[in-house]
Amino acid sequence: MSITYERDRKITREQFVDLLVRSTLGERRPIDDDACIDAMLANANLTITAWDGDHLVGVARSVTDFAYCCYLSDLAVDSGLQRAGVGRELIRLTQAALGPKAKLILLSAPKAVGYYPRVGFTRHENAYMINATEPLR
Ligand SMILES: CC(C)(COP(=O)(O)OP(=O)(O)OC[C@H]1O[C@@H](n2cnc3c(N)ncnc32)[C@H](O)[C@@H]1OP(=O)(O)O)[C@@H](O)C(=O)NCCC(=O)NCCS
Q1: Which protein residue has the closest C-alpha to ligand 1 atom 35?
Q2: For domain 4-119, which CATH number applies: 3.20.20.60, 3.40.50.150, 3.90.1150.10, 3.40.630.30?
Q3: By three-state DSSP, how is residue 28 classified?
């Protein structure tokens, strides 16, 4: 099977949600919130997709300034194609779109905590997050 990769090819909400479900990442993404999914697709500014013909089989969806930071929000590969190098290629193509000073940053899903160090990521002890609705102290 030959997989092709595209940068910033438009995908529909239905294609994206279907892939999230097929990859299992749908368990951890707001797949029932159409407005949120639409905003995720419309406002990401670096999306690499993997295709088996016209069938979406992988995605790396990022928000980035292309020069310093790139938040890789969603990396998902169709369950039937996992561990065949698609995820690594999606990350490689994301890196290739960035300038030399840029870093990829992400939060791992529990199922993927072994994956990122396997492909070369370093765990960062100083990462923090807060919800948009959470009052600051
Ligand atoms: C995690 C995920 C994106 C990895 O993509 P993939 O195409 O399956 O992985 P790759 O083929 O690029 O794997 C590269 C290497 O990592 C290994 N690997 C894959 N998934 C792994 C995992 N969950 N834990 C540890 N190692 C893993 C592969 O065996 C491969 O090893 P090799 O170089 O010895 O062959 C994919 O499995 C997936 O979609 N998982 C479910 C959704 C998810 O958790 N996404 C991450 C959100 S943060």
Answers
A1: 83
A2: 3.40.630.30
A3: helix
